[in-house]
Amino acid sequence: MIAETGHYALILALGVxxxxxxxxxLGTRLNDPRLxxxxxxxxxxxxxxxxxxxxxxxxxxxxxxxxxxxVWQNSHSAKPMLYKISGVWGNHxxxxxxxxxxxxxxxAAVATFGSNLPRQLQANVLAVQGSIAVAFLLFIxxxxxxxxxxxxxxxxxxxxxxxxxxxxxxxxxxxxxxGYVGFSMAFxxxxxxxxxxxxxxxxxxxxxPWTLAAWMCLTLGIAMGSWxxxxxxxxxxxxxxxxxxxxxxxxxxxxTALLHSALVMEKRDALKVWTVLLxxxxxxxxxxxxxxVRSGVLTSVHAFAVDPExxxxxxxxxxxxxxxxxxxxxxxxxxxxxxxxxxxxxxEGSLVxxxxxxxxxxxxxxxxxxxxxxxxxxxxxxxxxxxxxxNMTFVPLVVPLLIAVPFGPLLAWKxxxxxxxxxxxxxxxxxxxVTIIAVLAVNRSGPWLAPLGIGLGLWLICGAATxxxxxxKLFDVSWSETWRRLRNxxxxxxxxxxxxxxxxxxxxxxxxxxxxxxxxxxALAPGGKVxxxxxxxxxQGVEERQGPNYRELAGQFAxxxxxxxxTTLTPSKRAFAVEKSATTEAGIHNSWRGDLYVVLGxxxxxxxxxxxxxxxxxxxxxxxxxxxxxxxxxxxxxDRRLRVGAPKRAKARRVAVxxxxx
Amino acid sequence: MTRKQRRxxxxxxxxxxxxxxxxxxxxxxxxxxxxxxxxxDIAKMEIAPGQRIxxxxxxxxxxxxxxxxxxVHFAVTDGAKTMPVTYTxxxxxxxxxxxxxxxxxxxxxxxxxxxxxxxxxxxxxYMPPEVAAxxxxxxxxxxGEPAGASGGVITQ
Amino acid sequence: MLLWVILAxxxxxxxxxxxxxxxxxxxRADGRDAFNAAVYRDQLEEIEAxxxxxxxxxxxxxxxxxxxxxxxxxADHETDGAAKAHSRGALSRIAFTVVTLGLPLAxxxxxxxxxxxNLPDQPLAxxxxxxxxxxxxxxxxxxxxARLRAHPEEGQGWDAIAPIYLGGRRYADAAEAYxxxxxxxxxxxxxLSGLGQALVLEQQGLVTEPARIALEQAVKEDxxxxxxxxxxxxxxxxxxxxxxxxxxxxxxxxxxxxDERWRAMVEARIASAEAxxxxxxxxxxxxxxxxxxxNAADVAAAQNMTPGERQAMIDSMVKNLxxxxxxxxxxxxxxxxxxRAYTVLGRSGEAKAxxxxxxxxxxxxxxxxxxxxxxxxxxGLKS
Lengths: 662, 156, 383
What we know:
Radius of gyration of chain A: 27 Å
Strand content of chain C: under 5%
Oligomer: heterotrimer
Largest sheet of chain C: none
Distance between the termini of chain A: 89 Å
Largest sheet of chain A: 6 strands, antiparallel
Radius of gyration of chain C: 38 Å
Order of helices and strands of chain C: HHHHHHHHHHHHHHHHHH
C-alpha cells in the first residue's frame, strides 16, 4: 500500500506538473491573473506529491520490501541501514526521483518565497520549471519507473555495487544534483525573460543567490566525489579527467562564470544578454551531465543500465530543452535591452575576462569529453582522451585566469586603475617570489614548474588578503579604524576573499601532490620493510575479518618515523558475497605533510603480497580548498542585501599627480 | 576610450583567447590521444613501438604468471590473435582470467606489450564497451549473458 | 479497498488546493513597476546605509544613486505598452472543468497501466513471521540467514544451511557456510568435503589449493567418501600428473565397483588418462552423463579438454538430457537445466521451445511456472 500510494503520487505529480506548465503560460499570454496564479499551488502540490513518492520508495528500501523490483535489484537485507537509505538514489530509477524531488523543491521555493516577484515573471518561471518536471516525470514513469512490482517477491535482493557502499558516496549524488538542478533556477529565469522579452529588476534578487547556492552544492558534490575516488578506488589519485567527472565539472565551470556575470548584472545592470545565454548553457551542461552519466553512453561505475529506450528518451529531452532554449534565445534575445559598454580596465572588464577564460576552458573540456564519442559514432575509431589532453589545454587557459584573479576585486566598477591595483599587490607578489625561490632552493631536483604553481596558489591567497586589507585601509588608518571597517565590510566581500583563497589552497594541494608524490610498488613478505618519505613501514602479515556484509583480508603495517611509532595501517581487500564483487580499502595516515597511502595487492608466492605505497604531499589541501570555497559561497549567500556597484570618481592619486606636474 | 575602441578591445581579447584555445586543442589532439586496439588490429596494423595505445580483450585463461616481484605477465586475446602483456604493479580487484580487460601502454621493439595501467571490468555483467564491441566483431562474445531481470516476472 | 480511499482522498486534496485560485476573486493585478520600484528602493537604502557606515564616500554614493535613477528610467521606458490585466470568468471555468476531469482521469489511467494496486507491501520482517509461508524453502533459508546474521556463532545453523546453498548453486555462500561450520563445530568429513566441492564449483571446476587441502582432509577423516576422491583425482589431472590420477581412478573403481552412479564416468576417465599417458590423443568415448546429469567431476573434467572435445561433450550431454525429458517430462530441474544450457550455447530458439514445453508440462503447478519464469527473466528470454 505504501509503495502503491507512492507510485500514484508520482503519477499525480506528473499531472500537476502538466497543469503547472500549461495554465500559467496561458494566463500570462491572455492576461488572466487567475490562471497565472495556479502556478503557485501547483508548484507546492507537485513538491508534496514527489515527497510522498520519495518517502514511499525510501520506506520500501528501509523495510526491504523486495516485492518492489527496484529494491530487489539494488538492495539486500544484510546491508547496513545507511546504505539501504543511500541505495534509494544509488541506482538509476531512484536517482531520477531524487532529481525531480530537488527540482520540485526549487520550484516550491519560488512559489512560496516569490512574493517579491512580479506575478507575470513568477508565473513564467514556474511554468518553465513545470515543463522540466513534466519531461523528467514522464521519463521516470514510462522508462525508469522505480515502483514496478515483482510477484511473487524474491526473498533477498541482489545488493548494491560494493564500491558505492561508502559514506562519502552516499551523499555525493544529492549534492551534485542539488547543484545541477539549482542551475535550473537561473535557466527558468532566463527563459522567462526571453518569453517576456524583458528582464525585471527582480532578477537581481533571485538569479545570483540561487546560482550561488547551486554552485556551492556542486562544489561540495564534486569534492566529495573526488575524495571518494581518492580513498576508495585505491589508485591514490583524486581526479582522472574521466568523462563522468568532466560531466560534472563542465556545469561547474559554466556555473562559476554565470556566478560572476550575474554579479555584473546585479551590480551594474550590464551584460544581460550574455548572462541569459550563460544561464541556458549552464543548465544545458547540467542536463548533459545527468544524461551522459545516466544513459550509459559513458563507461563507468555510474552507467547503471545500458538501455536503448532510455537513451533515446534522454536524447529527446535534451534536444527539446537545449535546442528549444537556444532557438528561443536566437529569436527573442534581440528584444532584451543591452546594458552599456564599459572600460576594459574595470571590475566589469575583469569579470568579462573571467567569463571568457572560464567558458573557453569549459569548451576545451567539452571537446575532450565528447570528441571520442563523436569520432566513434562517425568513423567507428575508438580513442581515449585522457589526462595529457586536458593538462595541455585546460591548464594553460586557467593559469592566466588565476593570475588575474587578485586584480579583479581591487579594480573599481566602471573604470578601474590597473596600476593602483598592481601597487597594492606588491606585497603579495614579493611574498610569492620569495616562496618560489625558497621552494626552488629546497627542491632542486623536482619539476621546475612546481614552485611556480605553489607561488600561484600563494598569490591567490595573498591577493584575497590584500583585498580585505585594502578595503579596511590597513596601515593607512589607525588600528581601531581598520577593525571598525573590517567589521562593517559587507559579508559578500568576505565571501569573495574566502572563495578566492580557497582556490589558492586547492592549487597548492594540486601542485604539490602532482609534482612530489612518491610511489613504491613492492613485493612484501611478512616482516618486509618499505621506506618512504621518512616513514618506515613494516608488514606484519594479514588477517581475515568479517564485516556486516563482507569478508575482508586486512594487512597490518606498523608505521614508524625516525624510530618512533606513528600508527598502524590496515589496508584491506573486501569480498562481498551477495554482489560477488570485491573492493580495495586503502590504509591512509594523514599528517600536515601529506598522506601516507597503502594498498594491499594480490597474494604472491611464499606468502608475500604485492603492496603499493604512496606518499601524497599536502593532498588534503585540495579538499580543504574546496571546503573553503563552499564556506565562502555560504558567507556571500548570507549577505542578501541588494547593492549597486558604486563607481569611484576620478582617482585622488591622479589629481595629485596632475597637481604636481602643474 | 571611445565606444568603438572599447568594443574593439573586447572583441580582440575574445579572438585572441579563442585562437589560443583552438591552437592548444588541436596541438593536444595530435599528441595526447590514445587509440584503442584489439590484438588482431595490432597484428594487422604496423604500430610503432613506443606509441601509446590501449589494448583490450579477454585475459587468456591460464596465461597469468607472476615474477617473484610485482611484475605480472599475461596474455590478452580476442579469439583470433593473442598479445603477451607485462605489467608491474597491483592488478585491479576484478582482474580475472577469462574476463574483459583494457590495458594502456606501448609496444616494445620485440613485440610485447608493456602496460602501465590495467582496467578490469566493473561488475559481473559488465564488460568495457570497447572490448565488447571488438569481441563481438570476432564472434567470441554474445549478447544474452544474464543482465538482470527484464520482462517475465515484472507485473505491470 | 483502503488503497483506493487513500488515492481518492489524495486526488481530491490536490485538486482543491490546486484550483483554489481559479475560484477566488479576480487575481491580483500585475503591478510590475511596483516590484521593480521596490528593488530600486532597496538599493537606494543600501547605498544610504553603506554611506552612513563610511564604507563608501559621499561622491561614490552620489554616483550610485544616479546609477539607480538611470535604471529606474530605463525600466519605465520598457513597460510602456503593457496591457491591463483582466480575468475572464469563462476562461477560469473552462480551465477548472478541464483540470477537474482531466487530471484524475489521466492519473488513474497511467496508474492502472503501470501500478499493481492488488499487491500488498511485503516488508521482509513481516514475511518471515507469516505462518502461511511456513513450508516455503525460501522463507526457511531467509529465516536461517536472518538468525545467523544476528547470531553468527551458531554452528548448527551454518551446518544446516550449507548443503542447501550447495544444492541451490550458491557456491560462494556454501563455501562460506561450510567454513563457519568448520570453525565453530570443528572439521568433519562431510563439512570438509562440502567445502571442497563448493570451492571447486565456485571456480567452475578448477581444483584450487584451498579446495585440495579441504578435500584431502575430508578423505583422511573418512576414506569412503566418493566425491572428494574424484575431485582429488581431477586435481592431479589438472596438475598434469596423469599417472597418479590413473592410480586414484583405479582405486576408486575397485572400491566402488557396484556403484552405478560413478562407474561409467570413472571408466571413461581411466581410458582418457591412459590415452594421455601413452601419448595418443584421447579417443575415449565421452562419458555419458548418468541420470543425475553432469556432476562436479564431469564439469571439472570438461575443464581439461580441448575446446573441440569440450564442445562435443557438452553437446552430447544436452542431447541426452533433451532425449530423457522427451521420454519423461516430469523433471523440473532437468527442464531448467536444459533451458539454461540452450541459452548458454546460444541456441535461443530451442531454449524458448523447451521453455514452452516445460510450461505445458507443469501447467497446473504455480511454483514450477514461477521458477521457469524466473529463469526466463534471468536469461533474458522473452516468453
